Amino acid sequence: MKYFIVTYGCQMNVHESEKIASILENKGYVLAEKREEADIIVFNTCAIREGAEDRVFGNVGNLKKLKKKNKNLIIVLCGCMTQKEATAQKMLRTFPFVDVVIGTFNLPKLGDYIDAVKKGRQLEIWQEGDIDETLSYKRTSGDNAWVNIMQGCNNFCTYCIVPYVRGREKSRKEENILNEIKEIIAQKKYKKITLLGQNVNSYGKDLTVPCSFAKLLKDICALEGDFKLSFMTSHPKDLTDEVIDVIASEDKIEKYIHLPAQSGNNRILQKMNRNYTREKYLTIIEKIRNKIPSCRITSDFIVGFPGETEQEFEDTYSLVKQVQFDSIFAFMYSPREGTVASKMENQISDEIKHERVNKLLNLEKEIQKETGKR
Ligand code: 5AD
Ligand code: SF4
């Protein structure tokens, strides 16, 4: 019996697919080299932009042929896209050959759904769930071990679907994280440990015994062993001086920060509900560069947010030019149903979004040529 997992989206999903692999291997499945050979196919989906969802729809559609050839093939859809009730219902309707559709919170119960497949098709979406501490992973990222430190997001940036599909912030207990990392170190297979969370800088605020992200970093670095530590993603509003100091002083921490700015214009930042200004962002960059001159800094930007004028886009352009990031990701704004921004007036045309994203990416290329960065 063989399994095949198709993963879309961010590192969080990559890591969750490591959990899926472990659940399947514990049930006796072994990894298939290609999906055509599999007895079970799991699609771990992403909902961050429409493009991601369209890809999933297309690729799930293609599985029909495989199900025709192998009637016993089990097809499971999970992840952020299927956490949205309407999308999950639509997928079940559109794809009569899909067996199981579950949301993000029910993933730990995947084994039970597979057991119940003989009884019929299943759709179940839990609205909430505790952090899963079963911690059984089939690590697949070479010498890097992902470690989840929290789930969810409380920020509600107005464009973002994440808080709706991953729920409110919940941090894992520091002790549990440290124990997991000790085990990873003891295995001697991993040179790098990457902490994962939607907003790692607010780690620990929700714990009964609060713990700061800076303390967590220090306590991890105090563990004996030869490893490099990194983390993602940071939110500029929560990146404290203390965290910058810890990155500067701890040899084990990689000198790298991914710090999404999203826009360089204050009106747009406010409409995005980002809770910082261009000036504040630039101050943080300055602090990082002063304290950690060798630090690589990367960022994310969204162009074509509702109402973004040419001048406001120019502010983003000038921010990218000014900061000279080591690299950037530039995305065209994609309206997500249910978010505040999707209902805003003055949605920008695809044509203008394309134009702006290309301008930003061309600038990035120029900067890289000049600085030899990347
Ligand atoms: N449209 C376009 N890009 C988005 N991102 C998040 N939501 C959207 C959206 N609705 C981008 C942000 C974030 C990255 C992971 O994806 O830049 O930092
Ligand atoms: Fe989305 Fe904003 Fe949370 Fe990031 S911080 S996951 S962009 S709501």
Provide the fold topology.
Elements lengths: L1 E6 L3 H16 L3 E2 L8 E6 L4 H12 L1 H7 L4 E6 L5 H10 L5 E3 L7 H6 L6 E3 L19 E5 L1 E2 L10 H5 L3 E2 L2 H14 L4 E5 L16 H9 L6 E5 L8 H9 L6 E3 L7 H6 L6 H14 L4 E8 L6 H14 L3 E6 L17 H22 L3
Helix pairs in contact: 8-9, 12-13
The protein binds 5'-deoxyadenosine and iron/sulfur cluster.
What name does the CATH topology of the largest domain carry?
pyruvate-formate lyase- activating enzyme
In the CATH scheme, the class of the largest domain would be Alpha Beta
Q: Which cofactor or ligand species appear?
A: 5'-deoxyadenosine, iron/sulfur cluster
Taken together, the total number of domains comes to 2
The average pLDDT is 96
